[in-house]
Design brief:
Among the domains are: 2-15 and 70-252, no CATH class; 321-388; 398-506, no CATH class. The chain contains 16 helices and 21 strands. A hairpin with a 3-residue loop joins strand 4 (121-124) and strand 5. It is α+β, with helices and mostly antiparallel strands and 550 residues long.
C-alpha cells in the first residue's frame, strides 16, 4: 500500500460542486442491424429518420433534451429503490425507507442519456445524494452539505501525527465498497492503491493532521504523465462517517444497470423531433415531476420559495429556447475572455471546436453559486460558474502538463522571481476584468513556486518555475483553507494554467442577463401537437451550425 499526504490547500480544490450534468453534443453511431429493441425505432420508423447520424446537430439536441412524465416517474422509482438499497447496506443515517416526500432534490436524466449508458439520475435526502450514473448503475454516494461538514472538521479536528491510521481507513473503505458490490479485487489488480490523510502543512502546522482520509484507486492512462482516479472513498475516521464514495468506471461495479427505456419511449423521441420542428421553439419544455407545479405561459417561474429553498420539481425546469440562448451566451463569454487574455485559441471559438459542454437547466442556474454553464476546447475550459459571471479559466491538460514540466524544468533557486509571476498574474486578472486593486486591499497576497510541482525538490537547490499567485481572505484564514482568487502559471513560456475567482464581488465583468427571459421560458401545460412529416426539416439553430468553408 502506498500512503501519501494531501495538503489543506490542495484539499480545498478537490471539493468543487459535484452536481454537474453535462449535455453531450456528440452523436453516437448506430450501424448494421439493431441488436437492442431500444434502438429499433431509428431503423424502422420511416416517418422520420433511418438512424441517429441522419439527425442535424440541432435535432440531436432536441432528442437529448426530450423526456416524458411516464419516463421520469419510472426512472425516479428505480433510482429511489437503488438509494434505499445503498443506504441500508452502508448503514447510513437515513430514515428508511426513503420515500419521495423525504427527497430534497431530484434529477432524472433523459432517455438518450440512459441509452448511451451515461446515467439515469440522482436523488437527495437531507443527508446524502445517490447517483445512478456510470453505466446506469449506482456509482456514487455523497454526503449532503459536504463543504460545511469539511469546514467543521478542518476547524475542530487537529490530531497528532502519531494517530494516523491508514490501515483502519483502508479497511473501512473496502468494507463499504464491497457492500455496494464494487469489484475491489479487480480494482486492486488494475489500479494503484493510495491512502491520503489530510495534512496541515500549508497552514504552518507540521505536527498535526485532520482525520479525513482519501482512499483512491488510480489508473495510469496511455499518457505516462496522466493518472485517472477510477474509484475513491472519502471518510471521517473518528465517527466512521462516509463523505463520498464514487466509482467512475462501470466495469468495476458488479451491480446491474437500470433499464427504463423501451421502444415506445424511443418512438416518442422521434415524434417529438417533428413536433418541435413544427411548433415554436419556446413551446418545448421539460415537464415537472410534481404534477402540482403548474407554470403559466409567459411567466418567469419561481424556482426558490420566499425562504430561499428550492421548490420541489423546479430544479430541472428549462426550455429548449433557454438552453440554446444560455449556451450561446457562455460561448460568447469564452470568446471574449480568450481574446482578452490572448490565449492560444483559434478565434472565434465555434460550437464545432468544443470538446465538452455543461449546459444546465434554468432551475439549476438559479441555485448558488448560480452557474450558467461552461464550454471546453482542447486548450481551455471557460466557466460561467459564480453569480452568472465568468469566473474560471482552466487549462484543459493541466495535470499531465504539470507532470511533464516537473521533469523538463529544474532551475536553480537563485532564479526564483515572484515579482515576475505577480506581474504576469495581475496582468491576466486585469485583462479578464477582475478587481486586482480590491483583492490587494482586502486580502493577503501569496506568491510562491507551486507546492505540488516542487514537493520533491526540497533541499536540492532547484525549483520548478510553476508559480501559484493567490489571495487569502480573513474568512479563508478563519476556516483554515481556501482562497478567493488564484492564478497558476508556467513562467518560462508565460503559460496560463488556471485563473479562478471564488467571490463575485471581485469580478468586474457584467453578469449574463437575459432581457427576454419570459419569452425564453414560455411554455404551456398542454401537449405539443404532432405533425407528421415525410422528411426531417432543417431546424439546426445558427449557433450549432459549422463555420462556413473558406
Amino acid at each position: 500500500m502506498v500512503t501519501h499526504c494531501l495538503n489543506a490547500r490542495g484539499f480545498h480544490n478537490r471539493f468543487m460542486w459535484k452536481l454537474f450534468i453535462f449535455v453531450a453534443l456528440a452523436c453516437f453511431v448506430l450501424t448494421g442491424n439493431a441488436q437492442d429493441a431500444r434502438y429499433e425505432c431509428f431503423y424502422t420508423n420511416s416517418l422520420y429518420v433511418s438512424n441517429w447520424n441522419n439527425l442535424s446537430s440541432g435535432q440531436r439536441l432536441d432528442a437529448i433534451l426530450f423526456t416524458t412524465p411516464a419516463y421520469r416517474n419510472e426512472a425516479l422509482n428505480l433510482v429511489l429503490a437503488e438509494a434505499n438499497t445503498a443506504a441500508r447496506k452502508l448503514k447510513l443515517s437515513e430514515k428508511l425507507p426513503i420515500v419521495k416526500s423525504a427527497l430534497t432534490e431530484i434529477y432524472i436524466s433523459n432517455p438518450v442519456t440512459e441509452i448511451k449508458g451515461e446515467g439515469v439520475g440522482n436523488v437527495s435526502t437531507e443527508s446524502y445524494t445517490y447517483f445512478v450514473t456510470a453505466g446506469n448503475k449506482l456509482s456514487s454516494v455523497v454526503r449532503q452539505n459536504h463543504d460545511e461538514v469539511l469546514r467543521h472538521f478542518v476547524k475542530d479536528y487537529h490530531l497528532p501525527l502519531s494517530d494516523i491510521n491508514t490501515n483502519k481507513a483502508r479497511d473501512l473503505a473496502v468494507r463499504w465498497m464491497k457492500s455496494l458490490e464494487m469489484d475491489v479485487e479487480r480494482l486492486n489488480r488494475d489500479c494503484q492503491f493510495i491512502v491520503e490523510p489530510v495534512m496541515l502543512d500549508d497552514v504552518g502546522d507540521t505536527n498535526h493532521f485532520i482525520p479525513i482520509y482519501h482512499v483512491n484507486w488510480k489508473t495510469k492512462s496511455d499518457d505516462e504523465f496522466k493518472w485517472h482516479t477510477t474509484a475513491s472513498v472519502e471518510l471521517f475516521l473518528p465517527t466512521q462517517l462516509l463523505l463520498d464514495l464514487t466509482v467512475s468506471d462501470p466495469k468495476y461495479i458488479l451491480g446491474k444497470s437500470l433499464v427504463v427505456c423501451n421502444t415506445d419511449y424511443m418512438s416518442n423521441i422521434v415524434r417529438i423531433l417533428s413536433a418541435v420542428s413544427a411548433a415554436s421553439i419556446g413551446a418545448f419544455a421539460q415537464e415537472h415531476i410534481e404534477q402540482a407545479s403548474v407554470l403559466t405561459t409567459n411567466q418567469i417561474p419561481q424556482i426558490l420559495d420566499n425562504y430561499g429553498k428550492l421548490i420541489p420539481g423546479r430544479l430541472t425546469f428549462t426550455t429548449l429556447a433557454y438552453q440554446q440562448e444560455a449556451f450561446a451566451r457562455v460561448l460568447q463569454e469564452a470568446n471574449q475572455v480568450a481574446k482578452d487574455l490572448n490565449l492560444p485559441e483559434k478565434l472565434p471559438i465555434m460550437p464545432t471546436n468544443l470538446v465538452q459542454v455543461f449546459n444546465p437547466e434554468y432551475g439549476f442556474s438559479q441555485l448558488k453559486p448560480k452557474s450558467i454553464g461552461n464550454v471546453h476546447t482542447t486548450n481551455y475550459g471557460y466557466f460561467v460558474s459564480i453569480a452568472h459571471k465568468l469566473s474560471y479559466v482552466e487549462a484543459t491538460h493541466q495535470d499531465e502538463n504539470t507532470l511533464k514540466w516537473m521533469k523538463q524544468y529544474r532551475w536553480p533557486n537563485s532564479q526564483i522571481d515572484t515579482n515576475f509571476a505577480y506581474q504576469l498574474a495581475t496582468q491576466w486578472l486585469a485583462a479578464a476584468h477582475m478587481d486586482v486593486e480590491a483583492l490587494n486591499h482586502d486580502c493577503t497576497l501569496h506568491v510562491e513556486p507551486d507546492r505540488f510541482a516542487n514537493q520533491d525538490l526540497k533541499g536540492t537547490g532547484k525549483f520548478v518555475p510553476i508559480y501559484d499567485v493567490y489571495w487569502v481572505s480573513a474568512q479563508n484564514k478563519a476556516e483554515g483553507y481556501g482562497d478567493v482568487a488564484d492564478v497558476m502559471l508556467l513562467a518560462p513560456t508565460r503559460t496560463l494554467m488556471s485563473l479562478r475567482i471564488e467571490d463575485p464581488k471581485y469580478i468586474l465583468r457584467p453578469a449574463i442577463e437575459f432581457t427576454n427571459l419570459a419569452e425564453l421560458l414560455a411554455q404551456t401545460n398542454s401537449p405539443v401537437p404532432i405533425k407528421e412529416m415525410s422528411a426531417p426539416p432543417a431546424i439546426s439553430p445558427p449557433w450549432l451550425q459549422p463555420p462556413p468553408r473558406q
